[in-house]
Amino acid sequence: CHIITCHIAIPAIAINSCSNLHLDLGAVMSEVKTPTPTPAGDTYKGWVFKWTNYIKGYQRRWFVLSNGLLSYYRTQAEMGHTCRGTINLATATIAVDDACNFVISNGGAQTYHLKASCEVERQRWITALELAKAKAARMQAESDDSGDDFSPSSASVPPGQGGGTQNSEVQSTLRTLGSKVEDLSTCNDLISKHGSALQRSLSELDSLRLTGEAGDKIRQVTERATLFRITSNAMINACRDFLALAQAHSKRWQKALQAEREQRVRLEETLEQLAKQHNHLERAFRGAAQANTAADSKGKSLSKGEASDEDDDNEFFDAMEEAPEFITVPSYVPCYKPNYSLNLWSIMKNCIGKELSKIPMPVNFNEPISMLQRLSEDLEYHELLDKAAKCQNSLEQLCYVAAFSVSSYSTTVHRTGKPFNPLLGETYELDRRRESGYRSLCEQVSHHPPAAAHHVISDRGWTLRQEITVASKFRGKYLSIMPLGTIHAIFEKGNNHYTWKKVTTTVHNIIVGKLWIDQSGEIDVVNHTTGDRCHLKFVPYSYFSRDVARKVTGVVMDKDGKAHYVLSGTWDEKMEFSRVMQSSRGGENGTEGKQKTVYQTLKAREVWRRNPLPEGAETIYFFTDLALTLNEPEEGVAPTDSRRRPDQRLMEDGRWDEANVEKQRLEEKQRSVRREREREAASQRTSSQSEEGAPHDNYKALWFERCEDRITGEQVHIYKGGYWEAKERGSWEACPDIF
C-alpha cells in the first residue's frame, strides 16, 4: 500500500499523495520507538497505555500535560490536528491502582484508566499530574474570586453616580461577547461530533476494500475527508484555546470594570462634599471681610463683628433652594473669557432629569451670544451651498449639502459655554448680502417649548430655512441636547428641495474632569425632488473603539438605492467624498450579523475643511472669526435684536453682577407679559369654554407665520416677509418691547 505523508503547519496544510493511497497514519506512527516522558517547562509528554474496551484492552496513546489540561492522541503526529480527549485537572481526581496503573476522572463522563510501562514511569506521571492539578486549582480559584462580586445588577448605578451611555455600552459589549463565546463552544462541539461520525463512516467504507472505479472514488473521498478533518481539528484546537483564554480572563475584566465604576462614584461623592465645603468657606470668608470693613468704617465693636459672622453662617443655603447668590467677578476686556471659579455642582445637583431651559442659571456659565446667534453660525460655511447651487448633477450637489450639514458642528467642538436663551419675540439679523450674498433672520417664535425660526435667502441661488426646538436633559454626569425640527435647503436651479435633521449633542464630565462635547446619531439628507438621499452616521466616542474620534461616514444613493458617492471624515475637521465605481457584499458588520457593503471608489476629494480658530481662541470662548462679529453693534437693526439685549451686553463688557441682575429683570418681565396674554385670552373665550383647562397663550410671531409644511407635514413657522422692508423704512412700530 501507499502512505500519505502529512506535513502539518497550521494554518497551511500540504499533502503529498499518489494514486491508490491507503490512509493509516496511526499504524505508521505506532512503529516509532516509545520515548521516555519528558518535561518541557509546564508541559509533560509521553507514551502511556490507555484502556479502550474489552476487545482491544490497553492501547498505547500519546499524552500531553499542559496548562492544567491532560490531552491524549493516537500518535505524536496527531498533536497538530486531532485531540482524542481532554480532562481539566482543576476538578479531576487522581488515584493509584497498583504498581503501574492509575486512574484520572473528572467525576463525570471522562475517566482514563492508564498504565505506565514501569513503576518509575508511573510515579513521574503522578508527580507531574499532582503538581499541575494544584496549579490549575489555584488559578481557577483566583479567577472565581475575581468575578464573584460582579453581577448584571451591580453594574447599574443610580442616576448621576456613574451610569450613562458608557456603562450601557460596556454591558452590551460583555453580553455580546458572552453570546459569541457560547456560540463558539456549541460550534466546537458540533464540529467535533459530526467530524468523528464522518470519519467513522469513511473508515467503514475504506475497510470494504472495494476495487475498480468505486474503490478509487471512495479513496478520493477519504483523502478529502482527511484534509477536512485535519483542518477542522486545527480550528477546533484554536477555538478551544480561545475559549479557555476568554473564560479565564472575562471575570478579571468584569471585576476591573466594576472597580473603575465604584471608584468613579466615590470620586463624584467626594467632589460634591468638597464643593459644599468650598461654598461654606467662601461664604464665611466674605462674611468676615464684610464684618471687618464695617468695623473699620463705622467703629463697630468686635463682638458685633462676631455676631455678624454667626448670622451670615446661619443664612447658608444651597444654590437652587432660593434665589441664587452669584460670585462677584471683576471687569475684563469685552468678549474675553474671565478665569472665574464657580461651584457648578451646587447649582446643577438639584436639576438632574429636568429640562435645561427651566433651570435658572447665572450668566457665569454662558457665552456672550444668544441661541439665535448660535443658530446663525450654521452659515459659517455658506460657500458649500454656493458650490452646490452651481452643480449640474443632483447627486454631486447632494454631497455638498451633506457636507454643509456636517460643517455646522465644527464650531461646537470646544464651545462648552451655554448661549443665552432668547426672549419670546427676540430676533437676530445677519445681513451679509454685500460680502457673501445672503441675508439671515431668526426669531424666537415660542417660549414653552422654546423654538426659533430661521430663514436665509441668497443671491447665489439657494434658500435655507429651519425651525429648531431644543429638548435637553441634565443626567447628572452629562447633558443631552436633542434638537428637534427639520432643516430645508432649496435650490433655484433644478428646484431641488433637501431636508435633514440635527443629531444629538452631549456635554460630558459635568461633575468630574474637563468638559467635552460629542455629536452622535444618524440622519438622512433627502432630495424630495429626485428621491436621492445621503445617509450620514455620526459615530459616538467610545473608549473601546479604534476609530478616529468624531468620525462621520455617509453614502449618497439614488432613488433606487444604488450608491454613487461615499463621504468620510470628522465633524470637527474635514469631509471628503469619493465616487463609487463598484459595490459588493462581504463579511459581517459588528454584532448584528448583517453583511456590510464594500465600495470600490476613485480617489477621494476634499469637499470641506474647518477654518482655523483665531489666535488665543481659548480666551475668547473658542469663537470663530464669524462668531466674534455676531454681537457687534449695528445701526438700523430691530429693537428686538439680540445685539440690543442688555444682560448679554453687560456680560460681554465684563459686568457680571449687573448682568445677572438684568437677566432676572428680563425674565420676570417676560413672565408678567405672558400672564397678561393668558388673562386676555381667557377673557376672549366664552364662559363655557373657559370653565375647564388653563388659560391659553395666544402669542403670534411677528415675522413668521405658523402653517403646515407641505414637504414634511409638520406645523412650522415660515417667513412671511416684511422684515427687510421695515428695516429699509426704519419702521419698527410693530416690534414688542421685550428689553
From TrEMBL:
Sorted UniProt keywords: Coiled coil, Lipid transport, Lipid-binding, Membrane, Phosphoprotein, Transport
Q: Where is this region: Disordered?
A: 141-173, 287-312, 633-695
Extract the InterPro entries matched here.
OSBP_sf (IPR037239), Oxysterol-bd (IPR000648), Oxysterol-bd_CS (IPR018494), PH-like_dom_sf (IPR011993), PH_domain (IPR001849)
SUPFAM superfamilies, alphabetized: Oxysterol-binding protein-like (SSF144000), PH domain-like (SSF50729)
- Record flagged with keyword RNA-binding: no
Alphabetical list of PROSITE patterns matching this protein: OSBP (PS01013), PH_DOMAIN (PS50003)
Location(s) in or outside the cell:
Membrane
Q: PH domain spans which residues?
A: 41-134
Query: Annotated Gene Ontology MF terms?
Result: sterol binding
* Mode of membrane association: Peripheral membrane protein
Q: For this UniProt entry, what's an example GO CC term? A: cytosol
Q: Name one Pfam family in it.
A: PH
A GO BP entry is: lipid transport
Q: Where is the composition biased (Basic and acidic residues)?
A: 641-682
Broad class of where this protein is predominantly found: membrane
Residue ranges that the Swiss-Prot or TrEMBL entry lists as coiled coil: 250-284
Q: Which PANTHER family match?
A: OXYSTEROL-BINDING PROTEIN 1, OXYSTEROL-BINDING PROTEIN-RELATED
The text of the family note is:
Belongs to the OSBP family.
By what name is this protein known? Oxysterol-binding protein
Natural source organism: Myripristis murdjan
